[in-house]
């Protein structure tokens, strides 16, 4: 006897997008992930942000093949009656399948071992230089090398968060804690939560945390309407302080990037000390404790406070290069207001992303972010293959009339500063009053 299938429509699926009632569709089958959200390895945000939608392309992009076998336990018996697949999605899935058959997701190359040896060498040189030399110049160079070490550990932390860079999951977790928490002082748990939200909602002004830097930076005048951040769960108030800071953001951009690491330190602790679900919270805090023991101890070995401040500023300033790199790929690309959608994955990723053109020799410097479009479309693909697949992605964009934007490192900096300048000049328009908040209204109330 043929089984009678139960169907719901896309409009009915959309109604299941509230806490405690979260449904998603993958390849026409509907899954109830209301409980899974509590233990989902990718965190709660991808499920809550995409609930009530067809998320096939996002699921394919973010999950390994082994994850498919776990889906059946969440199947609620319904199928999507009006399930369709666009031509862009068909070609995207076909390309993903081809890369899988080629074994690209499993071939990780030797870059991880080389990077780890390089990081070990940099750390050893820094420690040796501080302990064995009395030269102020040597100590300054050691500070710069420490910043460079943080950049390289950041690339490894990024890679280990997207795919397994080690031989098994336990070793991969060890690599995450070592490169992120212990060496760089940044919680890998915070990074994964933040970065996954960014991938799912790339360049959404209210959902993508990588664009939410009020009151220091804004990339669009739409922030002047005091957008509510769905990531931080609070209103990003555009007040007089914000207006003043944003008005000069194209001048403060590089100086702020030199100390941007302070924000990452703070965000790590804010998450770990919050009531939000964080896997292995104790492990994360222990890793941060290791960093806040060895780094201050190393700085204290310098002969005087002047050199200590110099060392810290040097290490922060050099790693500021990486913070600039993070912003170049998205600050000057198109943005939108609203929740992310699951059925235009390819289009959203290409519209909101900028590649950096460079020679193959400079791939180590950019850590894979130079092929940011490829990385966003195939986030689990090891960075050693991104250059290889670039022509295929470019051809697919051309076929469907989608942008494949790229610029040199210098040009991308120009474009980013130009975006900031445009928003800064708009913020200076005093004919547009800033929205008044409740405190202002209470203070200025009459009667």
TrEMBL record:
**UniProt keyword terms in alphabetical order:** Heme, Iron, Lipid metabolism, Membrane, Metal-binding, Oxidoreductase, Transmembrane, Transmembrane helix
Q: Which GO terms describe its cellular component?
A: membrane
Cross-referenced InterPro entries, in alphabetical order?
Answer: Cyt_B5-like_heme/steroid-bd (IPR001199), Cyt_B5-like_heme/steroid_sf (IPR036400), FA_desaturase_dom (IPR005804), Fatty_acid_desaturase (IPR012171)
Name the pathway it acts in: Lipid metabolism
The residues covered by the Cytochrome b5 heme-binding domain are 5-89
- Tell me the compartments it is located in: Membrane
Query: Which first-to-last residue range defines the signal peptide?
Result: none
GO MF assignments: metal ion binding; oxidoreductase activity, acting on paired donors, with oxidation of a pair of donors resulting in the reduction of molecular oxygen to two molecules of water
Q: Which PROSITE patterns match?
A: CYTOCHROME_B5_2 (PS50255)
Regarding the membrane, this protein is recorded as: Multi-pass membrane protein
Give any Pfam family that matches. Answer: FA_desaturase
Any one of the GO BP annotations: lipid metabolic process
Q: Out of the domains of life, which is the source?
A: Eukaryota
Query: Which parts pass through the membrane?
Result: 111-131, 137-153, 174-191, 251-273, 285-305
Report the family membership.
Belongs to the fatty acid desaturase type 1 family.
Q: What is this protein called?
A: Fatty acid desaturase
């Amino acid at each position: 006897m043929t089984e009678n299938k139960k169907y719901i429509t896309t409009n009915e699926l959309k109604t299941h997008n509230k806490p405690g009632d979260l449904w998603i569709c993958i390849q026409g089958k509907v899954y109830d992930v209301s409980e899974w959200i509590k233990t989902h390895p990718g965190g709660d945000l991808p499920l809550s942000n995409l609930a009530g939608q067809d998320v096939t392309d996002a699921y394919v992009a973010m999950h390994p093949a082994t994850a498919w076998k776990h889906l059946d336990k969440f199947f609620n018996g319904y199928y999507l009656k009006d399930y369709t697949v666009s031509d862009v999605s068909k070609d995207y899935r076909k390309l993903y399948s081809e890369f899988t058959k080629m074994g690209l997701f499993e071939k990780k190359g030797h870059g991880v071992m080389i990077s780890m040896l390089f990081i070990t060498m940099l750390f050893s040189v820094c420690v040796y230089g501080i302990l064995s030399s009395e030269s102020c110049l040597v100590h300054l160079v050691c500070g710069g090398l420490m910043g460079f070490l943080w950049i390289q550990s950041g690339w490894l932390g990024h890679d280990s968060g997207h795919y397994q860079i080690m031989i098994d999951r336990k070793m991969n977790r060890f690599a995450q804690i070592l490169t992120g928490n212990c060496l760089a002082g940044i919680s890998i748990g915070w990074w994964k939560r933040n970065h996954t939200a960014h991938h799912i909602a790339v360049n959404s002004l209210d959902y993508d945390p990588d664009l939410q830097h009020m009151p220091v930076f804004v990339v669009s005048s739409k922030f002047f309407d005091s957008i509510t951040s769905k990531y931080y769960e609070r209103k990003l108030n555009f007040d007089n302080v914000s207006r003043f800071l944003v008005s000069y953001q194209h001048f403060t951009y590089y100086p702020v990037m030199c100390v941007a690491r302070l924000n990452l330190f703070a965000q790590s602790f804010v998450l770990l000390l919050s009531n939000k679900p964080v896997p292995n919270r104790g492990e994360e805090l222990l890793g941060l404790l290791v960093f806040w023991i060895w780094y201050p101890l190393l700085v204290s070995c310098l002969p005087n406070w002047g050199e200590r401040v110099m060392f810290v500023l040097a290490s922060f300033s050099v790693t500021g290069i990486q913070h600039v790199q993070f912003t170049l790929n998205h600050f000057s690309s198109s943005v939108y207001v609203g929740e992310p959608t699951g059925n235009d994955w390819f289009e959203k990723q290409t519209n909101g992303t900028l590649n950096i053109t460079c020679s193959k020799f400079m791939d180590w410097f950019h850590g894979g972010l130079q092929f940011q479009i490829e990385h966003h479309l195939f986030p689990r693909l090891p960075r050693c293959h991104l250059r290889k697949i670039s022509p295929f992605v470019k051809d697919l964009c051309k076929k469907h009339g989608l942008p494949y934007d790229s610029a040199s490192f210098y040009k991308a900096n120009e474009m980013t500063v130009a975006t900031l300048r445009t928003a800064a000049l708009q913020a200076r328009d005093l004919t547009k009053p800033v929205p008044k908040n409740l405190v202002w209204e209470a203070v200025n109330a009459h009667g």
